[in-house]
Each structure stands twice: as C-alpha cells, then as structure tokens.
Amino acid sequence: MRALFALFALAAPLLVSGCGDPAPTYVDQAWIRLSPNKAMPSAGYFVAHGGDAGTQLRGVITDYALKVEMHESLTKDGMTTMERIDSVDIPAKGKVAFAPGGKHLMLFGINDTAISRGKMQLTFLMANGDRLLVDALIRKPEAAAAPAPKADDAAGH
C-alpha cells in the first residue's frame, strides 16, 4: 500500500502539469512601414505564433486606418505580383511571418494621430473568435538619399 501511495505521490505532479491552460496564439514584432506618398497604402508586418491548437487569421482591423487588407507577394513567370488573401493558417506551435517580400498588410488612409504617436493598435481576428490587440510601431519613410557629390564638387571647385 505504501508503495502504491509513493508511486501516486511521484506521478501526481506530472498529472497536474498536464491540466494547465493551453498555450494561446499570439502576435508580436508588429510594425508598419509608412508610405512616402499619403495617397498610397502603407505596409504592415508581424509574426503570428500558434498556440497548442492551430487556428486561422481571418483579418486585421484598426480604428487608425480606413481599410486593412492581407496580401501576399508572389513570383509567377519571373514577375512579382501581389494577391489579396482572405485568411492564413497558423499551425499549432508554429509561426507565420508577415515580412517584406511575402505576406503583409496593406493599410489605406492611416490617421495622422497614429502617425504622430508613432504607433497604432491592430486587432487580429482569429477563426476561434479571439481578438488579439497588438500595438504596431510606425516607421516613417526613409528620407531620400542625398545625391552623390559631383567630381567637381569633391575637388573643391
């Protein structure tokens, strides 16, 4: 009887550890590359991490832009094109990166308030009904590179 009790005492922590909450899906590393032309959409990037169960990202919304769409850049017959996508599978314990040259967000009409704050909140809509709120940093467009000095300028002429 003591041996059975000792065995149960040793096994109990292992049994209890399996009863915890499942790991959730989450999003991090969110940022937006602001378009240099306000009339053109800006691009958004992030990494979605799958929890213990796979799910699907069905869309992204925000109060700080007129419209947000998910897109993917593809190369077909040597030409790069962009296609709108409606959903993205996020595998259990896997990750999906939205990065330059691949999947990305297109944000149309970003609010000046968000631009001045340097960040905006995005809401990620998951297939299971979860809504993940994430702050995305806004990176302003790079200033145009200064023209290279002419040979005469370099010589002091």
Features:
disordered C terminus; single chain; ten-stranded mixed β-sheet; alpha+beta; 157 residues; globular; 3 helices
Per DSSP, the total helix count is 3
Helix-strand sequence? HEEEEEEEEHEEH
* Helix-strand category: alpha+beta
Low-confidence stretches: 144-149, 153-157
Shape: globular
Quaternary structure: single chain
Count of β-strands:
10
Please describe the biggest sheet, giving its number of strands, its sense, and whether it closes into a barrel.
10 strands, mixed
Strand content: 35-45%
Q: Please compute the radius of gyration using only Cα atoms.
A: 24 Å
End-to-end distance? 100 Å
Mean pLDDT: 85
Helix content: 10-25%
In a nutshell, what does this entry contain?
With 157 residues, the chain is an alpha+beta fold.
Molecular structure report:
By secondary structure, the chain is an alpha+beta fold. It has three helices and ten strands; from the N terminus they run αββββββββαββα. It has helices spanning 2-17, 112-117, 151-154; strands at 26-33, 42-49, 55-61, 67-76, 79-85, 88-90, 95-98, 103-108, 119-126, 131-139. Strands 1, 2, 3, 4, 5, 6, 7, 8, 9 and 10 form a ten-stranded mixed β-sheet that branches.
Present the secondary structure layout.
Elements: H1 2-17, E1 26-33, E2 42-49, E3 55-61, E4 67-76, E5 79-85, E6 88-90, E7 95-98, E8 103-108, H2 112-117, E9 119-126, E10 131-139, H3 151-154
